[in-house]
């Protein structure tokens, strides 16, 4: 028996931000906390949101103490500020870090203790209360954070998560208009992040027919539009398809889970503070270069979704074509294709391997087992920029 979970309400499409007024009016929230990326405030991206709140005569305050690759110390600080404010609704606006922080804040305002008490690897407490309602508005096409119950936090040398159904949004508003001003590099990194979500969900050991259909649709939409969205950001159709692809990928991976790429990306973010999307991008081809023999049928379907020629080719060659295609896509959107580009040395590979092997929650979903030797080889290949097939 399979199950599928998503937020209660998802509003998608150009102009869907206007739905915020209805949410406020129907629910009569009087005290709102906005958690937003600081750059969005400077660029005026959150102005339409605050205008709606003002028109609804709703009291609000905005916290912009959001740092990429969210440090746990920052999360604790913002949680304390939120507890003093006593919000009735938390709105998260921005990329994954802002939305993840809003998740944590929305729940922990009504639970005791610090953020670290609830972490997956070392936490000792369980959430007792659902917290206040949460509404998430993504401004990138990539993380899928608006439709998941996972909050990722950076520790000293790796990452950990809080994951619980209480972190799931009550409302998600996904308006492509908010992505129109994204710079090229952020568009590229968030786009590859979304593509990774879709591909890993599709090959996950926990995949279902429903998550498969969503994942393949997301792969089609993202791969067909990413180059245009990166290099011609004013193309509204490409932006809209990327936003929809990211949303669909998020719904797929929330239910099927991600695996080896994310597991090995976490130490890159924790140790070297590489942005999450870039960490996924630089590892994506190398992980699939290793695991494709365990998911050949699905690699063929991925090839079709990527619009690669398959006629007259055997499954092995098709799978290898997929790996090459992923490598070239990362390259084409201007992102590094080897971890040495981030000043990672060969002697760092052992430390990365030791941290990566700890991500058992993610590694367990890989169609091919990734032991210590395999993980070290993947990092080594990614350091050298070498595909083995």
UniProtKB/TrEMBL annotation:
- CDD domains reported in the protein's UniProt record: Fe-ADH
Alcohol dehydrogenase iron-type/glycerol dehydrogenase GldA domain sequence ranges: 7-176
Q: Where is the Fe-containing alcohol dehydrogenase-like C-terminal domain?
A: 187-382
Q: Which major enzyme category is it?
A: oxidoreductase
Q: What PROSITE patterns has UniProt attached to this entry?
A: ADH_IRON_1 (PS00913)
Enzyme nomenclature, EC number: 1.1.1.-
**Nucleus: is it a keyword of this entry?**
no
Q: Name one Pfam family in it.
A: Fe-ADH
The residues the entry assigns to the signal sequence are: none
GO MF terms, alphabetically ordered: oxidoreductase activity
Q: Keywords of this protein's UniProt record, alphabetized? A: NAD, Oxidoreductase
Q: Which family does it belong to?
A: Belongs to the iron-containing alcohol dehydrogenase family.
Protein name, per record: Iron-containing alcohol dehydrogenase
**Could you tell me which species this protein originates from?**
Halobacillus seohaensis
